[in-house]
Amino acid sequence: MYDNDISGVVAADRAHVWHHLIQHRAFDAKDPRIIVEGKGLSVWDQNGREFMDAVSGGVWTVNVGYGRESIADAVRDQLVKMNYFAGSAGSIPGALFAQKLIEKMPGMSRVYYTNSGSEANEKAFKMVRQIAHKRYGGKKNKILYRDRDYHGTTIGALSACGQEQRAAQYGPFVPGFVPVPHCLEYRAQWDVENYGQRAADAIEEVILREGPDTVGALCLEPVTAGGGVIVPPKDYWERVQEICAKYDILLHIDEVVCGVGRTGTWFGYQQFGVKPDMVTMAKGVASGYAAIACLVTTEGVFDQFRDDAADPLNHFRDISTFGGCTAGPAAALENMKIIEDEHLLDNTTAMGARLMAGLEAIKDKHAVVGDVRGMGLFCGAELVADRATKEPLDEKIVAAVVADCDRQGVILGMTNRSIPGFNNTLCLSPALISTADDIDRMLATIDEALTNVCGQS
């Protein structure tokens, strides 16, 4: 413990901690921020200053809010009884959470535990490649991914990265990953009446160009997250499903951000009637109270690895060390119980509608807001320098808006060093416990920040 000597903690952090996504030169002139406590939607820094967290831990994670003693108690009790054993054996919370999770995912069957969202996606990619060797002589190994989507930080996951700046300087990448166009109608690539269907048809065009016999899977976010909070247009997902079935392509849905309530259903794909073959999830599974990620598959995918035990290469030869930690599923069970008991899916739908209506009103007031979009408590506002031409607002100005919100005591997100020229979307993903007063405060803060930074329209 730090014995209340917060200055010592700050000094230790400055000297020894390598923070995520931060240019540490900034700490030459200021202290790093230390978050020391959280309760509900509020967090406090080392100076005792309170902030409303409108992005659930900075990266869309703390779905049920801070300070949940029942989750902490569940983790503590489980760790004392049995903290860890390799995933080659089972555990009580691992079995019970898998059962509970599958109950929420009709059509799915098997849960593979892993360490992080990036690694969950890596597992899915490995399964696709192994199936290609087992069934197709190694040929059907290509994995399609969508422009603006993001699937993780490892080299394999970055090979499927639709955000150029996230992947910059980390190549060369793994071969066999092929991009397909994004589906953001506000940044339309085609002038057509049914944009959703046209954007999906573009995927088929890539498949035909590459050769259907070479494409094993299509990996998509249900709602694009860090690429600009993009809700696919009408008819998009129906057409995507048809294309995958037509060419015998596995549909892999990356629910690392949208999963476990964020959009108002248990999973984002359930908003669109999609029937995936593989689903990956992480962040909200235990709301950040313990590390857990999952790859969930259909029984059909699982059965492709149920072969002659005499062949040592037939099963899925993979290990995820901390996939055997029991804290994750213990926390996830209690997290899911809270969402059920407190009717947080309904609250997410209601508060999400309030948030979107408020963002539309801000758009009417401020010409700098070009588009608002979202689903549930997962919303974005794209800022533009000129509404007529849709010229994106300079990233530094968008960052200044976020900084002004921070000054007012609300932590907001934005597309950040992801897409050259298009890091211009404000991102909101508050905890599913948000109240009407919470939503109204977020909206008032954004309204004031836009006035302060961009002026009155």
UniProtKB/TrEMBL annotation:
Signal peptide: none annotated. It comes from the Bacteria. Keywords: Aminotransferase, Pyridoxal phosphate, Pyruvate, Transferase. Gene3D superfamilies: Aspartate Aminotransferase, domain 1, Type I PLP-dependent aspartate aminotransferase-like (Major domain). Belongs to the class-III pyridoxal-phosphate-dependent aminotransferase family. Coiled coil: none annotated. InterPro entries: Aminotrans_3, Aminotrans_3_PPA_site, PyrdxlP-dep_Trfase, PyrdxlP-dep_Trfase_major, PyrdxlP-dep_Trfase_small. Pfam families: Aminotran_3 (PF00202). PANTHER family: AMINOTRANSFERASE, AMINOTRANSFERASE CLASS-III. This is Taurine-pyruvate aminotransferase. One of its GO terms (molecular function) is transaminase activity. The lineage of its organism: Bacteria, Pseudomonadati, Pseudomonadota, Alphaproteobacteria, Rhodobacterales. It comes from Albimonas donghaensis. Its cofactor is pyridoxal 5'-phosphate.
